[in-house]
Amino acid sequence: MSVEWSEYHRDAGRSGAGPAEPAMTAPRVAWRMGVDADVYASPLIVAGHVIVATENNTVYSLDIFTGAIVWSRHLGDPVDASTLPCGNIRPIAGITGTPAADVAGRHVYVSAFLRGYHHVLYSMSLVDGSVTWQQTIDPVGSDARVQQLRGALAIGGGFVYVPFGGLFGDCGDYHGYVVGVPLAGGAASTFRIPTAAGASIWSPMGVSVDGDGSVYVVTGNATSSASTFGYSDSVMQLSPDLRTVRSYFAPSNWAQLNRADTDLGSVGATLMPGGIVFSVGKQGVGYALRAGALGGIGGELSSAGICAGAWGGTSWLESTVFVPCIDGLYAVSVAANALHVLWHADRPALAPPITSAGAVWAIDWSSGTLYAFDPNAGGVRFTTSVGSANRYSTPAATEGFVVAPAGRAVVAVSVVG
């Protein structure tokens, strides 16, 4: 297969764009494969194999055509979630963030939360699942019990990037970090959001990496004083080595967002054509920003109210971005001088969307239903039950297939019957 879905939403830019062909004609469920625990991470599809990671710290490689297990590897005991001071992943916490695959190097990188409260990054062979190296990545001085790695990993500039956030409930002394580890392992670079506390990088999109190697992150609220700006509720452009803030943006009402826990960082940075960065968060206001010069406080190119609040991850086709909101899925036309809603699908429990086979695909996590929408008008073209899902259950796609996480299982849909 020529289309590799090697990271969350396919690539480090988080396009969420699968192949347009073959177009959907007579879709059907092709297979379903059970796994040993809940799947919060999005699947990857590489070299005809589906890579699946579970909260039990097990990684599977499944055949894309049959769902048969090619290999599986258990990386270590997960954390008993009842021993954590807060959080909403139960009963165990293990691999939550989506892995990232280096297709050329034939490795997949996975971050696991292990019993004893430490986060470990593993480099695994895509061929047989063997571990080529591993290292603990908890930043010096951090409390691993209150740091969660919900955000997806990303690869760029010779590094694998791992974002850190807090647990649901904002308990303890947590911080927003990005850790960059060389693809061959070794000394890590770490950037901490310079607030006294909080400012998580927690969206399932994780970080986004541009073509010049810049690392884009979007942060949540600070739990310390909201009167001093410290890059909470912000979009930040970091250098590949994570040593420099190259540019940043924050809404003019960032202090109000801080006080109200109205995170801009509930959705990651969408890197769109033409050098546009799109951002939207819990307030539901969308911002078009200039890549490389994000604008500082209140310096957006354009902005508009989009919806009642956005959570998860976006995808895009050309100049249209698809946004999962608490009041449904929105298609938004994005330009430097204007944002406007093209259509709205009134399905308030949709998880992050992708595009493939001429449709927009998203899972209704309240009912465990996979939907395919018309990208031009938002009409429903196909539905099927996947059985179970969570708020951030995100599909993946390659030629002829859409693959969805489904609780303690993975479901593949053949788009051509």
Strand count, sense and barrel status of the largest sheet are: 5 strands, antiparallel
Q: What fraction, in percent, of the residue positions are helical? A: under 10%
Q: How would you describe the shape?
A: globular
Radius of gyration of CA atoms, rounded to a whole number: 19 Å
Strand content: 35-45%
Average pLDDT reading: 97
Low-confidence stretches: none
Distance between the termini: 18 Å
Say how many strands there are.
36
Number of helices: 1
Structural class: mainly beta
Q: Would you kindly provide a brief summary of this structure?
A:
Helices cover 1% and strands 42% of the residues.
Structural descriptors:
417 residues, 1 helix, five-stranded antiparallel sheet, mainly beta, globular
Written overview of the protein:
The protein has 417 residues and is mainly beta. 1% of the residues lie in helices and 42% in strands. The protein is built from 1 helix and 36 strands. The strands form 9 sheets. Strands 12, 13, 14, 15 and 16 form a 5-stranded antiparallel sheet that branches. Strands 17-18-19-20-24 form a 5-stranded mixed sheet, with no helix packed on it. A 4-stranded antiparallel sheet has the order 1-36-35-34, with no helix packed on it. A hairpin with a 5-residue loop joins strand 4 and strand 5. The two termini are 18 Å apart. The model has no long low-confidence stretch (mean pLDDT 97).
